[in-house]
Amino acid sequence: MLAASTTTLPLFLALSACAGPNPLAGPPPLSSDVRGLLDAVTDEQNLIWVYKRTMASYSAVAPALGALLAEHQAHLAQLRAMIVEPPGKTIPGTVTRKPAVPGTAAAAVAQLRAAEQSATTAQLRRLARAAAPLAQLYASIAASEATHVSALTALARSPG
Amino acid sequence: MTAAPTSTATPQPMQPVPALQAALAAEHTAVYGYGVAGALLTGGEQAAALADWRTHEQARDTLEAMIVKLGATPVAASPAYALPFTVNDARSARRLAAALEDGVTQAYLGVVAVSDPTLRTFGALAMQPPANRAAEWRGSTVAFPGMGA
After folding, report:
1. Of the residues A6, A10, A65, B147, which has the maximum number of CB atoms within 10 A of its CB?
2. Is residue A125 less than 8 Å (CB to CB) from chain B?
3. DSSP symbol at B79
4. CATH number of B16-138
5. How far apart are CA B148 and CA B77, in angstroms?
């Protein structure tokens, strides 16, 4: 059995192979794996933002959401760790989607559930063409998000 | 943007048949293990264990068919399996069920390492039900289902 772990994920891939007449003219184009990673980082940042806003708006559900938020923060840290930041450069930390928090706790939890479902789908789309170790990371995060969907479904029944 | 993924080596992809055989072996283990766990549970928990046991039987049959289609002979179940710890009450039975589901989740993660995108997606989707069942039996989720600590 393949022994994968968050600490032993093989390091992977390089930028797209140098091509063109003048490789020193500028930075090489990003490989599809790097683009996928950056998209995954952005998606995690967006999810974390929604969790934090929901928790700030509805204290009754905050304890239950806190555990799921912590797992997303772990996902983000792991995804960021897969990318080397050259000196003077940083991975974008911008939240690109800031939906309004719904007017009831139940609706807010439902919004989180939909966001988790969407995130799972995005991970599955990414992993099809990713390098194997990265595909495994996406698959594991997708499975985690699937468990969040279930947890949020249960929470929606009794949001407190 | 000049960010680059960390890179020291490019590992070889997992081959389909060994990955599927490992998943099948994990399903065999789960089928056996739920027989042990279920006997120590009662009421709704026993019903859940029975449902999960049947789910693993179906997954086992699916994997066997896939392996045969690839021209290989599916690994057979062992008559018995060593349990990872003593299982003698409901609490340890729940713990065993979670451990079985973790093992199955990890095995399907191996399938995700193959190069065939269809098989990869199959493995990734197959991870999700056992990850959910593990969370149910454990009573909590984990950040990276299928991956070691």
Report:
1. B147
2. no
3. S
4. 1.20.1260.10
5. 24
Whether residue A123 contacts residue A40, with contact meaning beta carbons closer than 8 Å, is answered with: yes
Beta-ladder partners of B14: B114
Q: Quote the CATH superfamily of domain A32-83+102-157.
A: Ferritin, core subunit, four-helix bundle (1.20.1260.10)
- Residue to test with chain A: of B2, B8, B127, most A Cβ within 10 A: B2
Contact between A2 and B22 using a beta-carbon 8 Å cutoff: yes
A24 touches chain B (CB under 8 A): no
Q: State how far the alpha carbon of A113 is from the alpha carbons of A93, A101, A147, in Å.
A: 23, 13, 10
Which residue among A34, A132, A141 sits closest to B113, beta carbon to beta carbon? A132
* pLDDT tens per residue, range B14-71: 899 999 999 999 999 999 999 999 999 999 999 999 999 999 999 999 999 999 999 9
**For every residue of A5-62, which 3-state class applies, written as one string?**
ECCCCCCCCCCCCCCCCCCCCCCCCCCHHHHHHHHHHHHHHHHHHHHHHHHHHCCCCH
Instruction: Write the pLDDT tens digit of every residue in A28-51.
Output: 677 888 889 999 999 999 999 999
Those of residues 79-118 in A touching chain B at CB distance below 8 A are: 81-86, 89, 91-92
Please report, as a single letter, which amino acid is at residue B121.
Answer: T
Q: What is the ipTM of this complex?
A: 0.91
Contact yes or no for B144/A78 (Cβ under 8 A): yes
C-alpha to C-alpha distance for B79 and B58, rounded to whole angstroms: 19
Identity of the residue in A67, A78, A139 whose CB atom sits nearest the CB atom of B109: A139
Chain B nearest CA to A131, separation (Å): 8
* Closest among A113, A121, A122, A148 to A36, alpha carbons compared: A122
Rg (CA), chain A: 18
